Amino acid sequence: MRTVRILIGMAVISAAAMNASAQVQGTIVKKDRGSMSGIIKYDSQKQTYSVTAVGAGNISFEVPRENVLDIDVPRPKQLDQAAAAVQRGQADSAVIQTLEQVVRVYTMLKWDIPAARWLAEAQLKQGNAPAAMDMCERVLRANPSAAYSADFSKVYWDCLLAKGLTRKLESELSVAIQKGDRELAAVAQMKRGDIQQKEGRFKEALVDGYLRTAILYKDVKSVQGEALSKAAKCFEQLGQNSNADKMRRRLLAEFPNDPYAYEMKSGT
Fold first, then answer.
1. Tens digit of pLDDT for each residue in 51-92?
2. Sheet with 35-43, edge to edge strand ranges
3. Separation CA 153–CA 137 (nearest Å)
């Protein structure tokens, strides 16, 4: 019965996404500090935004992408619901359809990158690495700046790892560590550990990846749960169970609300 309710709920979310597809309202802030509000659409071929003022004779204006400073568009509710479903491991076809729709409707309207991140993660969890890779590459072609988003880069790098594209991944990680902000560099350092762990080099993964992240990037709280969880697993592989327990205790004590702490408590 619970599964049925979830499926029905996801179908409703998907329907909401479909209904939202026609119009996205928000405000564009231009580099000259002027702003325009109304229904916003992005033309990928012309690389321009059109803004149609609601209730003013439906007059439309075009703004070249290079003249846009910021875009203020409300976060779609269905995005949070679908993302929560992916986090719970309930990435069914309805969730994927919802995320695909958000990516399409909100192309270059702020929420396409978060939606693409969760969509690619859902596809990876379903074992569909090619589809996840295709999604990431489409987003990067349309919006190269997505490569500097820690959340999006993480799932893109997961795709590269799943596809066995280690050389390309290592090159991407080096650039991120050298040129990215603290959060992006921390995620990249973690991903280096994932490469080594996948190759069975648990000591290197522990020292160069997870412990290095936990120590050098201690200020980046968003990665600490993952670093401690994966460090614990590496210690286990090395037969150092007492150190593994220390990592787990630290994770539960310092980051009790982290998704990795939840996984540990739930036994998943």
1. 998 775 678 889 999 999 999 999 998 999 999 889 888 888
2. 60-64, 48-52, 35-43, 25-30, 68-72
3. 11
- How many residues can be counted in the chain? 268
For 194-229, b where at least 16 C-beta lie within 10 A, e where not — what string?
bbbbeeebbebbbebbbbbbbeebeebeebbbbbbb
Cβ(35)–Cβ(27) below 8 Å:
yes
Do residues 194 and 154 make contact, with C-beta atoms less than 8 angstroms apart?
no
Task: Output the six-digit token pair for 245.
Answer: 């327990």
Separation between Cα atoms, residue 223 and residue 176, nearest integer Å: 15
Nearest to 95 by CA among 123, 60, 56, 136: 123
Mean per-residue pLDDT of the chain: 87
Residue 267 confidence (pLDDT)? 67
Dist CA 50 CA 13 (whole Å): 27
- pLDDT for the residue numbered 60: 85
